[in-house]
Amino acid sequence: MKVPRGFARFVPLAEGLLRRGRLPALIFAVTRKSKHYRLGALKQDVQLLQALCMAYWRGEYRAISGKSMVSVVAGLLYFVSPIDLIPDWILGVGMLDDIAVLTWVMKTLSQELEAFRTWREAQSPEHLQVVERLPQSRGDLDLEQRQR
Fold first, then answer.
1. Would you say 97 and 79 are in contact if contact means Cβ atoms under 8 Å apart?
2. pLDDT tens column, 68-114
3. What is the number of structural domains in the chain?
4. Radius of gyration, alpha carbons of the chain
5. pLDDT value of residue 32
């Protein structure tokens, strides 16, 4: 499957975000945007990518290649960016490119995402609640980062 147009410019941003350990900040933005748009069936996929990012950030799940993790983060960055191939403010079509990019990420990384699903199923609900919990505030996020 061909890489979506405009996706490549988000790859260096994703690498930098991963290097600086800023995944929760991205997940905050994804959560905010998800509340404002109807994602349909893609909603579960976005939630899976969010859960993967949090488990990766906390060091609980690392059975994914670095290149694949960069693709996940780049896809989510594309999703939250208001300025991409088709700007989100164009009613009716602004989300089409975002959906295409997320669909591409899900299909391209299907094996690694299936492995993550399997890992999640093997975890207790209590453990997943801790691993996938998003800090409630910027202060909580900073505190948790210092503790890591």
1. no
2. 999 999 999 999 988 776 666 666 667 778 888 999 999 999 999 99
3. 1
4. 15
5. 86
Cα gap 70→97, rounded to integer Å = 19
Judge whether 1 lies within some domain: no
pTM above 0.85, yes or no: yes
* Closest by Cα among 124, 103, 127, 126 to 48: 103
CA atoms of 105 and 49, how far apart (whole Å): 10
Which parts of the chain fold into alpha helices (H)? 11-19, 23-36, 42-57, 66-80, 96-108, 110-122, 125-131, 138-147
Predicted confidence (pLDDT) at residue 64 exceeds the cutoff of 90: yes
CA 64 to chain centre: 14
Domain that holds residue 100: 7-147
Q: Return the closest-CA partner of residue 128 out of 75, 33, 61.
A: 61
Contact present, 56 and 69 (Cβ < 8 Å):
yes
Render pLDDT for 12-54 as a digit per residue (tens, 0 to 9).
999 999 999 889 889 998 988 887 767 777 889 999 999 999 9
- Answer for the pair 14, 70: CB distance below 8 angstroms, yes or no: yes
